[in-house]
C-alpha cells in the first residue's frame, strides 16, 4: 500500500471513528501538557551556592526547594496515569465498528500487517496532532501565565523551558507509544477476515486472587516502618521503590478485583432480580465482569491514591496538633507549626480531584460506547414497548451496583496502606518544658524563665483517627461523578434507540 | 411430462395392472394432472409394441383392463437411459402467460396489460395460498409437501416475474410501440 | 370487525416520502400480508400502525381510540400489552438466555419471576425449541433466534402481531417452518398479524394481501374484498 492510500484508509470512518480520533488527540494533548509540566519543574536550575540553596524567584516551596522538585515532578508524572487510562478507554470507543471495518479490509485482501499498520497509523496520527496541540498550548500558556507579582516572584516556573530535544522527544514519543499500544491491542483482531472472536478466550467466573494483591500491598506497607527502623536511612532510595510497588500492586488488585466484585454482585442481583432492569444489569455484569475493571480503572486508581493521601493528611494533622499542644504547655501559645506538608497535601488532593474528573470523562466514553454497541437490541426492545426508562435503569444498575463496593474497596485499600506507611506518632518519653503561668507571662522571654520547669513526660503513642469525612467526600464524590456521567451517557439513549436503527442490516 | 417413462418407473418395482398404474401415478405425483384410464392403456399399448413391457400373469387373454404388465430388459435399459439424461433447462419460453402479456401490450394499452397482470397475479397468489394450506395441514404427507413445494416454487417464480413485469409495463409498452 | 384502522397516513423522511396517504383496516384475527418492492413504504406503514413512528398526517385508531396522538409512554404501554413486534433479526438481548428473553415482556408487565419463566418455557415448547431455554442468542442459529423472538412477541398474547420481514434472513425451509408456527399460534389465540414481506410464498400464508407502491396501496392481491382487474386505477 502506498503511504497515500494508507493515510486515506486510516482516516476513513464514521462519526464514532471521528469522535475516537478527537478524544485520542485530546488525551494526547493532556498527557503532553502534564509531561511538559513535569519536565519544566525538572528544568529549574539550582542557583549557585551550598546544597539546599533555594530558587527564590518562586512563591511556591514545591518549586523553590531543590529537594522537593523531584517529588513534584514525580507527582505530575503520576497524573499521567489517569490520562493514559482515559486514552485507553477512548481507544475502545467505536471499536466494534472499527474492528468490522478492519475485518472488511482483510476480506478485501489486506494483510494482517497492513491492517495493523492502518489502525496504528490512525491512533498515531491523532496522537501526534494532539501532542502538537498540547505543545502549542504549553507554549502559549507559559507566556500568558508569566505574571511576576510585586516582588518579581512567579507562581509557576514560566521562566524556564525544557531543552528543545526533550520537547521533541515528548511530542514524538507519545504518538509512537500510542501507535505501538494500538498495534499490540489489535493482535487478536486482525488475524481473521471474518471479524473478531474476542470472547473466545473468556473463561468462567473470575477468581478472587486480586484480593491477594491488595493483601500483599497492605502487608508490605505494614512492614515498611519496622524495616526502615531496623535498616536505617541507608536504603531510603530502595524504600521509595517499595512504596511505588506497593501502590501499584494495590491499585492493580483493586482494579482486577472489580471484575470479581462485578461478577458476585451480578450473581446476587440475578438471584433477587424481580424487575427487567435489574435482570438485564445482572446478566450483563456476569457476562462480562471485566467491563467494570476496564471502565473504572482510572477512577479506582485515583481513589486509591486519594485515600492514601487522606491517611497522610490525617497523620500530618495529628502531628501538627501534638506539636501545638506541646507548645501550648510550653507556653508558646501563638506558635504556628509549619503547615507546608498540609499545603502539599492540598496539591495532592487537587491532583486526585483532577484525576477523578478525567476518569469520569473516560466513563462517559464507556457508557456511550456500551449503549451504541447495543443499539440494535435496545431499539428492538423499545419497539416492542420496553420503556427507555427501563433500559436507562438497567444501565444505572449495571454501573452503580459494582461501583459502590469497588469504590469502598479502593478507599479501604488506599487508606490502610497510607496508614500503615506512616505508622503511629510517638510523643513524650523525655523531659519537656512546662510553663506554669498565665499566657502573657509565658509569652515574655524574660519573665517566662521564672516559671518554666522541666518535667519528665511519659511516652504516648497516638494513632491518627480515620478521616471519615474526607474518605466519605472522596467516595461520595466518585459515586456522584459516576452518576453524572451515566446521566450524560443516557442522553444518547434516545438517538440510539430510534427505530431507524432497525432498518440497516 | 413423459408419461411412458413414468409408467416404466412405476413398473420397475413389480408387475402391475393398468388401474394399479393409474392409482400409483396419481398418488406419487399429487400435483400433476391426474392420468386418464384411456391414456394409461394407449401408452401401455405403445410400450408393448416397442417391447419395453411384456404381459405377465395368467389372465393375459382377459382383455386390456385385466392384464398385468412387467418391465422387460429393454424397458429397464430405456428407463435407465431416461433417468441418466439431464433435462435441458428451458430451451424456449413456452408459456401462455408470457404470450398473453405480449399480445395484450401489442393490441391494447398499458392499463389493460396491467389489469391482466394484476388479475393473473391474484389468481397465482390464490393458488399459492391453497397449496400452502395443503402443505401446512397437519395431515400432509412428505409426498404432498414435496409435490406442493414443486408447484409453489414455480408459482413463486411466476409471481416474481409478474411483479417485476408490472413495474416494467410502461417502459415495455413504449418499446413495443416505438 | 375492524380493530386497527389507519386513514390517510403520510410520512416522510426529510424530502423522501415513504407514505403518501394510505388507508387500511385490520380486522380481529386476520393475517394481512403487506408486499411491494424495496422502498415502497412497507416498513414505515408497519411502524406507524404499531405506534413506533408517528405519521406526519392521517390517523391510526385502535378499537376506536386514536393512538397516533398518544404520548410515547402510552404507545409503549400499548405495544407492550396489545401489540407484539417481530423483526428480520430477532434482536434478542445478547446477555439474556432464551427463556429470559421470552420472559422479559411479562416481567415488564409485573408478572412474578417464577410465573414468567414458566410461561416462557411453555412458549418455547410450543415453538418446538424448549431446549433453548438456557442458551444465549449468540449460540443459536438464525432460525432458533427467530423462534425465540416469536415466543417473546406472542407471550403477552397480543391482539396484533407486527412482523417485519421475519423470514428475511432465513433459508426457504426454515422460513416456512417459522411461518407455519407463527400462523398456527396466532390463529389459536385470534391474534391478527401484519406481515411485511417481499416474498410471494411468505405472503401466501396470509388471508389477505396488499401490494404497495410508492407509499400507497397499488392493488390488493388476495382476499374477498379484492376488486376486479378492470376496476383498478
Automatic annotation (TrEMBL), chain A:
Q: Which InterPro entries match?
A: ABC3_permease_C
The regions listed as transmembrane in this protein's record are 21-44, 73-94, 115-140, 160-186, 207-225, 237-265, 296-316, 347-368, 395-417, 471-493
Is Transferase there in the keyword field? no
Residue ranges annotated for the ABC3 transporter permease C-terminal domain, each copy included: 91-186, 351-431
What is its subcellular localisation? Cell membrane
Example GO CC term: the record gives: plasma membrane
Lineage top rank: taxon: Bacteria
The membrane-topology field of this record reads: Multi-pass membrane protein
One family from Pfam that matches here is FtsX
Sorted alphabetically, which keywords does the UniProt record give? Cell membrane, Membrane, Transmembrane, Transmembrane helix
This one is known as FtsX-like permease family protein
Q: Which organism is it from?
A: Micromonospora zingiberis
Q: What is the lineage of its organism?
A: Bacteria, Bacillati, Actinomycetota, Actinomycetes, Micromonosporales
From TrEMBL, chain B:
| SUPFAM superfamilies for the chain | Winged helix' DNA-binding domain (SSF46785)
* Coiled-coil residues: none
Which InterPro entries does this entry report, sorted A to Z?
Tscrpt_reg_PadR_N, WH-like_DNA-bd_sf, WH_DNA-bd_sf
In this chain the Transcription regulator PadR N-terminal domain maps to 7-80
Gene3D superfamilies the record matches: Winged helix-like DNA-binding domain superfamily/Winged helix DNA-binding domain
Task: Fetch the PANTHER family from UniProt.
Answer: NEGATIVE TRANSCRIPTION REGULATOR PADR, TRANSCRIPTIONAL REGULATOR YQJI
Q: What is this protein called?
A: PadR family transcriptional regulator
Originating species: Micromonospora zingiberis
Automatic annotation (TrEMBL), chain C:
Where does the record place the ABC transporter domain?
A: 4-232
Matches recorded under InterPro entries? AAA+_ATPase (IPR003593), ABC_transporter-like_ATP-bd (IPR003439), ABC_transpr_LolD-like (IPR015854), MacB-like_ATP-bd (IPR017911), P-loop_NTPase (IPR027417)
Q: Give the domain of life.
A: Bacteria
The entry lists its GO molecular-function terms as:
ATP binding; ATP hydrolysis activity; transmembrane transporter activity
Q: Which CDD domains does this UniProt record tie to the protein?
A: ABC_MJ0796_LolCDE_FtsE
Question: Listed GO cellular component terms?
Answer: plasma membrane
Recorded hits in SUPFAM superfamilies, A to Z, give: P-loop containing nucleoside triphosphate hydrolases (SSF52540)
- Does the keyword ATP-binding belong to this entry? yes
Cleaved signal peptide residues: none
Alphabetical UniProt keywords: ATP-binding, Nucleotide-binding, Transport
Protein known as: ABC transporter ATP-binding protein
Amino acid at each position: 500500500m502506498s503511504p497515500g492510500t494508507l493515510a486515506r484508509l486510516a482516516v476513513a470512518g464514521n462519526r464514532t471513528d471521528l469522535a475516537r480520533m478527537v478524544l485520542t488527540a485530546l488525551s494526547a494533548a493532556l498527557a503532553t501538557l502534564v509531561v511538559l509540566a513535569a519536565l519544566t519543574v525538572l528544568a529549574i536550575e539550582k542557583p549557585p551556592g551550598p546544597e539546599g540553596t533555594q530558587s527564590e524567584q518562586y512563591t511556591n516551596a514545591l518549586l523553590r526547594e531543590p529537594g522537593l522538585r523531584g517529588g513534584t515532578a514525580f507527582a505530575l508524572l503520576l497524573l499521567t496515569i489517569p490520562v493514559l487510562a482515559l486514552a485507553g478507554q477512548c481507544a475502545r470507543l467505536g471499536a466494534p465498528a472499527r474492528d468490522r471495518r478492519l475485518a472488511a479490509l482483510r476480506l478485501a485482501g489486506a494483510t494482517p500487517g497492513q491492517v495493523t499498520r492502518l489502525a496504528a497509523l490512525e491512533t498515531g496520527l491523532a496522537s501526534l496532532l494532539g501532542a502538537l496541540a498540547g505543545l502549542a498550548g504549553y507554549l502559549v500558556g507559559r507566556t500568558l501565565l508569566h505574571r511576576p507579582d510585586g516582588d518579581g516572584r512567579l507562581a509557576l516556573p514560566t521562566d524556564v523551558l525544557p531543552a528543545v530535544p526533550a520537547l521533541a522527544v515528548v511530542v514524538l514519543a507519545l504518538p509512537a507509544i500510542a501507535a505501538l499500544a494500538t498495534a499490540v491491542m489489535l493482535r487478536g483482531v486482525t488475524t481473521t477476515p471474518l471479524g473478531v472472536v474476542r470472547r473466545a478466550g473468556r473463561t468462567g467466573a473470575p477468581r478472587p486472587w486480586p484480593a491477594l494483591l491488595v493483601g500483599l500491598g497492605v502487608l508490605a506497607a505494614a512492614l515498611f516502618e519496622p524495616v526502615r527502623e531496623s535498616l536505617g536511612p541507608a536504603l531510603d532510595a530502595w524504600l521509595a521503590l517499595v512504596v511505588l510497588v506497593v501502590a501499584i500492586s494495590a491499585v492493580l488488585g483493586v482494579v482486577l478485583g472489580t471484575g470479581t466484585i462485578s461478577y458476585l454482585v451480578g450473581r446476587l442481583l440475578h438471584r433477587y432480580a424481580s424487575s427487567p432492569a435489574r435482570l438485564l444489569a445482572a446478566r450483563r455484569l456476569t457476562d462480562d465482569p471485566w467491563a467494570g475493571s476496564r471502565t473504572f480503572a482510572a477512577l479506582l486508581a485515583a481513589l486509591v491514591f486519594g485515600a492514601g493521601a487522606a491517611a497522610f493528611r490525617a497523620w500530618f494533622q495529628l502531628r501538627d496538633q501534638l506539636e501545638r499542644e506541646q507548645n501550648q504547655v510550653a507556653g508558646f501559645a501563638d506558635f504556628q507549626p509549619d503547615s507546608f506538608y498540609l499545603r502539599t497535601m492540598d496539591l495532592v488532593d487537587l491532583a486526585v480531584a483532577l484525576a477523578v474528573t478525567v476518569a469520569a470523562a473516560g466513563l462517559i466514553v464507556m457508557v456511550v460506547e456500551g449503549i451504541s454497541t447495543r443499539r440494535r437490541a435496545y431499539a428492538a426492545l423499545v419497539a416492542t414497548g420496553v420503556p427507555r426508562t427501563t433500559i436507562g435503569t438497567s444501565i444505572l444498575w449495571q454501573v452503580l451496583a459494582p461501583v459502590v463496593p469497588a469504590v469502598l474497596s479502593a478507599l479501604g485499600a488506599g487508606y490502610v496502606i497510607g496508614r500503615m506507611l506512616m505508622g503511629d506518632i510517638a510523643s513524650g518519653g523525655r523531659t519537656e518544658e512546662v510553663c506554669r503561668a498565665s499566657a502573657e507571662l509565658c509569652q515574655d522571654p524574660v519573665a517566662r524563665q521564672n516559671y518554666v520547669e522541666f518535667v519528665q513526660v511519659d511516652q504516648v503513642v497516638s494513632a491518627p483517627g480515620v478521616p471519615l469525612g474526607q474518605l466519605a467526600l472522596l467516595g461520595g464524590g466518585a459515586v456522584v461523578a459516576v452518576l453524572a456521567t451515566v446521566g450524560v451517557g443516557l442522553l444518547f439513549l434516545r438517538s440510539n434507540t430510534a427505530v431507524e436503527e432497525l432498518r440497516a442490516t | 411430462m413423459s408419461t411412458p417413462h413414468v409408467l416404466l418407473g412405476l413398473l420397475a418395482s413389480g408387475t402391475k395392472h393398468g388401474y394399479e398404474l393409474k392409482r400409483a401415478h396419481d398418488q406419487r405425483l399429487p400435483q400433476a394432472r391426474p392420468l386418464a384410464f384411456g391414456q394409461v392403456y394407449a401408452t401401455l399399448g405403445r410400450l408393448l409394441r416397442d417391447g419395453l413391457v411384456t404381459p405377465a400373469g395368467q389372465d393375459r387373454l382377459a382383455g386390456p383392463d385385466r392384464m398385468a404388465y412387467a418391465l422387460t430388459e429393454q424397458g429397464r435399459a430405456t428407463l435407465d437411459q431416461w433417468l441418466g439424461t439431464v433435462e435441458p433447462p428451458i430451451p424456449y419460453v413456452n408459456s401462455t402467460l408470457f404470450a398473453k402479456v405480449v399480445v395484450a401490450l401489442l393490441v391494447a394499452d398499458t392499463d389493460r396489460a396491467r389489469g391482466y397482470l394484476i388479475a393473473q397475479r391474484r389468481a397465482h397468489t390464490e393458488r399459492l395460498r391453497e397449496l400452502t394450506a395443503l402443505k401446512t395441514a397437519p395431515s400432509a404427507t412428505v409426498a404432498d409437501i414435496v409435490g406442493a413445494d414443486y408447484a409453489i416454487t414455480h408459482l413463486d417464480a411466476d409471481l416474481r416475474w409478474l411483479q417485476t413485469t408490472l413495474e416494467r409495463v410502461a417502459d415495455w409498452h413504449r418499446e413495443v410501440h416505438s | 370487525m375492524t380493530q386497527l384502522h389507519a386513514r390517510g397516513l403520510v410520512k416522510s423522511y426529510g424530502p423522501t416520502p415513504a407514505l403518501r396517504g394510505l388507508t387500511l383496516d385490520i380486522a380481529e384475527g386476520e393475517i394481512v400480508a403487506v408486499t411491494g418492492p424495496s422502498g415502497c413504504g412497507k416498513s414505515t406503514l408497519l411502524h406507524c400502525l404499531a405506534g413506533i413512528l408517528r405519521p406526519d398526517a392521517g390517523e391510526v385508531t385502535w378499537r376506536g381510540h386514536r393512538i397516533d396522538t398518544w404520548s410515547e409512554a402510552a404507545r409503549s404501554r400499548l405495544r407492550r400489552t396489545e401489540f407484539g413486534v417481530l423483526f428480520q433479526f430477532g434482536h434478542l438481548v445478547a446477555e439474556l438466555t432464551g427463556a429470559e428473553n421470552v420472559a422479559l415482556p411479562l416481567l415488564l408487565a409485573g408478572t412474578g419471576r417464577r410465573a414468567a419463566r414458566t410461561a416462557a418455557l411453555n412458549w418455547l415448547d410450543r415453538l418446538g425449541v424448549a431446549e433453548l431455554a438456557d442458551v444465549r442468542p449468540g449460540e443459536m442459529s438464525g432460525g432458533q433466534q427467530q423462534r425465540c423472538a416469536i415466543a417473546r412477541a406472542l407471550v403477552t398474547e397480543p391482539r396484533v402481531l407486527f412482523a417485519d420481514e421475519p423470514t428475511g434472513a432465513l433459508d426457504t425451509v426454515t422460513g416456512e417452518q417459522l411461518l407455519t408456527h407463527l400462523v398456527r399460534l396466532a390463529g389459536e389465540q385470534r391474534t391478527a398479524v401484519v406481515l411485511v414481506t417481499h416474498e410471494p410464498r411468505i405472503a401466501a400464508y396470509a388471508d389477505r394481501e396488499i401490494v404497495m407502491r410508492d407509499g400507497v396501496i397499488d392493488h390488493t392481491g388476495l382476499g374477498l374484498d379484492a376488486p376486479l382487474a378492470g376496476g383498478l386505477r
